[in-house]
């Protein structure tokens, strides 16, 4: 388990489009169990009214940030939520942000941790404080330098047709392939971010070929302005309000806010597998993030068995796999229902993951 990497504040926006988990999760279930991350991967799930939500993370910093996010969802309206966190198009002054922070109800441990980060950033938004977001800021500078204005012009396209024409005639394909070649490799990610804990890829395709294929999917999926991950890769920041993570969608935000009124939330700072083995009540939906890609054998093969008794009959587990799909995963007692969600998977806005969706039989 790469504890060294997963101990700091790594994600403040995150790199998962929770629209998939949201599509898979049933309405009105009893117990949702989810890896916390920045909290933005959890908020959309509240829109489906679970009775209990357990947020687990091995990093106290991530858990504190998730708690702050949930508390801000409870207290703030949509506009103030977006401006408190730093999402465009709204702005909030540092002094107002500090006052808002002081008014939010969170545990004293979460307050202590998140206050330190706010002080470090002079009460500016925390949206880009995570190590992953800071690393992407650096990568975006190199990307911009390589693809130049001709590459950035893709963000001027307002329709899919326009973008298709632009990609066929103007997009600097060679420069883009070069950018991906120099940026999309384990050495860069290990140096900038993972400190040796980058997942060990287990497919033969070279990494830059894999990334080029995935970005091609993204360019064809929708206009790039609507994709927050692509905005981060090209600009290092979010600048188009039409392309924000789904926690910012006004409809999902409101539903999540209403859901939160009835949901009882527990925060656990520990290994998600250890906790899912003995949950306080059977788990009906487990959102694992891409934790399975970082597991070592034999756990990589057996983790679904390890947690089996904690999952209720009919309960669903959703795993993301990044560069490493668990080999010979033991799925005894589960039905693989991944293919039921092919369409939703094709619409997921990061496209760098494979998915494993399992139903306890
Ligand atoms: C797995 S990471 C997301 C990783 C990201 N998609 C990537 O590969 O760079 C999401 C969250 O999982 C937490 N995490 C990692 N391993 C964990 C574990 N075994 N138990 C609980 N949380 C874990 C991290 O602290 C982080 O907040």
Distance between the first and last residues' Cα: 28 Å
Unreliable stretches (pLDDT < 50, length at least 5) are none
Overall domain count: 2
Shape: globular
Q: How large is the radius of gyration? A: 20 Å
Give the tally of β-strands: 7
Helical residues, percent? 40-55%
Largest sheet: 7 strands, mixed
Query: Tally the helices: what do you get?
Result: 15
Structural features, described:
The chain has 361 residues and is α/β, with parallel strands linked by helices. The protein has two domains: 5-68 and 247-360, Vaccinia Virus protein VP39 (Rossmann fold, 3-Layer(aba) Sandwich), CATH 3.40.50; 145-235, no CATH class. 45% of the residues lie in helices and 12% in strands. It contains 15 helices and seven strands. The chain has a seven-stranded mixed β-sheet with strand order 3-2-1-4-5-7-6. Strand 4 (283-287), helix 14 and strand 5 (311-322) form a beta-alpha-beta unit. Helix 6 runs antiparallel to helix 8, helix 6 (131-152) crosses helix 11 and helix 8 (173-183) packs across helix 10. The relative contact order is 0.17. The model has no long low-confidence stretch (mean pLDDT 95). Bound molecules: S-adenosylmethionine. The site of S-adenosylmethionine has 21 residues, from strand 2. S-adenosylmethionine is lined by residues 1, 6, 10-11, 15-16, 35, 37, 56-59, 62, 132, 271-272, 289-291, 294, 322. This is DUF3419 family protein. It comes from Candidatus Nomurabacteria bacterium GW2011_GWA2_43_15. InterPro entries: DUF3419, SAM-dependent_MTases_sf. It holds the Pfam family DUF3419.
């Amino acid at each position: 388990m790469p504890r060294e990497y997963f101990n700091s504040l790594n994600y403040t926006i995150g790199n998962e489009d929770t629209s998939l988990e949201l599509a898979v999760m049933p309405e009105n279930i009893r117990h949702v169990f989810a890896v916390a991350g920045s909290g933005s991967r959890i908020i959309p799930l509240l829109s489906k009214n679970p009775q209990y939500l357990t947020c687990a993370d091995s990093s106290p910093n991530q858990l504190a940030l998730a708690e702050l996010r949930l508390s801000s969802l409870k207290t703030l309206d949509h506009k103030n939520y977006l401006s408190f966190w730093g999402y465009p198009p709204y702005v909030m002054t540092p002094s107002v942000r500090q006052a808002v922070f002081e008014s939010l109800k969170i545990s004293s441990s979460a307050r202590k941790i998140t206050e330190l980060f706010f002080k470090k950033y002079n009460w500016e938004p925390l949206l880009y404080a995570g190590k992953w977001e800071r690393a992407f800021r650096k990568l975006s500078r190199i990307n911009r330098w390589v693809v130049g204005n001709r590459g950035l012009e893709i963000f001027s396209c307002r329709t899919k047709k326009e973008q298709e024409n632009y990609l066929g005639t103007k997009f600097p394909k060679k420069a883009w392939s070069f950018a991906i070649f120099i940026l999309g490799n384990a050495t860069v990610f290990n140096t900038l971010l993972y400190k040796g804990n980058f997942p060990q890829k287990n497919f033969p395709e070279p990494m830059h070929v894999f990334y080029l294929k995935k970005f091609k999917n993204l360019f064809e999926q929708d206009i790039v302005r609507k994709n927050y991950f692509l905005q981060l890769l090209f600009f290092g920041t979010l600048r188009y309000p039409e392309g924000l993570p789904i926690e910012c969608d006004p409809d999902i935000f409101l539903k999540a806010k209403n859901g939160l009124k009835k949901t009882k939330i527990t925060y656990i700072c520990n290994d998600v597998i250890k906790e899912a083995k003995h949950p306080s009540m059977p788990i009906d939906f487990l959102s694992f993030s891409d934790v399975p890609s970082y597991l070592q054998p034999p756990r990589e093969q057996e983790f679904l068995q390890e947690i089996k008794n904690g999952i209720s009959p009919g309960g669903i587990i959703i795993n993301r796999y990044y560069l490493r799909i668990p080999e010979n995963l033991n799925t005894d007692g589960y039905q693989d229902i991944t293919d039921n969600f092919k369409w939703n998977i094709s619409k997921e806005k990061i496209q760098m993951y494979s998915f494993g969706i399992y139903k306890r039989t």
